[in-house]
Amino acid sequence: MSVIEEEHDDPLVDATRPRRRRLRGGRRLRDGHYLYWWVEILAVVVFYVVYSTIRNLHHGNATEAYQHARDLIRLQADLPATIFALLVARPIAFASFVAAMAVAVVGGAVFIFLLKGGTVSLLVQAERDAPAVEEPPLQPAQIAAAAVFSIERFIDGSRELFSRYTRLGLLLMVVYALSAMALVAVTRSDALGGLLIPAVATVLFVIWITAVNLVYLLAQIVIAAEGCGVGVACRRAFGFLRRTPRTVLAVCVVTVGLVMLATAASLVAATALGLISFVPIVGLTVWPLQLLALALRALVLQYIALSAVGAYSTLYRGQASERAEPVDAVAVSAARAEAG
């Protein structure tokens, strides 16, 4: 039963309650009270007028507002250095902070390695078992053949690949750390004047990290597809890149472009929502919408990453089959020669 009911005469309510003058546009609730939509709108308008009046009681000038903005920006820029100086001045607190951050980073990374093992193993198996779905017509049976997900298979893949993915991930974190240290050393060097060298170093750092992530992803696919170790997977990933550089680079460029588009769209949405965040009452809807935009962005980025894994897996399997065909042809020829 709805909380708000249509207006009608109820003899039981009228007998126990004195009659009052009813205004137009009201709806009666179950407890007998009336709700008027125009009263709510009037209350919102009054609240906004009172709020605007109180806010505008103090009239500042543009110079003072600009100085306040500069002070806030300066405070925000000096805040990390101040916090770091306070932590260094207290060694016990600093050590506790570093230990807590290390536990959080390493623990989260290990958990990601565990999940990544099951995910990549299922994607590689689905790509291997599925027919050519890119060739029309697309039938439901073809899609069903690629649906290999199950909790048991995910757990088995996570358990089987966890140790190797952990070693590969720790190697990636070491490369990240060394790369970040090199970037900091270049950008903070006193011998390099101007902003050109730090800007070029930052661009090269982004390109380098993208290349490292590409090799890391290809190594994960090789480990899941062939069941080899970390060293062998890295060597085969580099070999795969040398044999098919254009195709892999094309998939990488498309993936990076989609990620950039999704990120730009989320930033535009967040900025557009921020324009109404200062409006009373209406601004309360900004936070849920921003959270929804962030959740949608995360889902889209994960979908793009999984699509990239499927594309690289298809390319690697095709390249491996083409490489195996000449070997099989030689073996067949030798067998026929011996039989003849």
Please tell me about this protein's structure.
With 340 residues, the chain is mainly alpha-helical. Among the domains are: 4-55, no CATH class; 244-340. It has ten helices and three strands; from the N terminus they run βαββααααααααα. The chain has a three-stranded antiparallel β-sheet with strand order 1-2-3. The model is unreliable at 1-15 and 326-340 (pLDDT under 50).
Strand order of the largest sheet: 1-2-3
Instruction: Summarize model confidence as the mean pLDDT.
Output: 80
Number of strands: 3
Query: Number of DSSP helices?
Result: 10
Radius of gyration using CA atoms only: 32 Å
Entry keywords:
disordered C terminus; 340 residues; 3-stranded antiparallel β-sheet; disordered N terminus; mainly alpha; 10 helices; extended
Q: Gist?
A:
By secondary structure, the chain is an all-alpha fold. The protein has helices spanning 11-16, 37-55, 62-89, 91-129, 140-146, 151-187, 196-226, 230-243, 245-274, 286-339, and strands at 4-5, 26-29, 34-36.
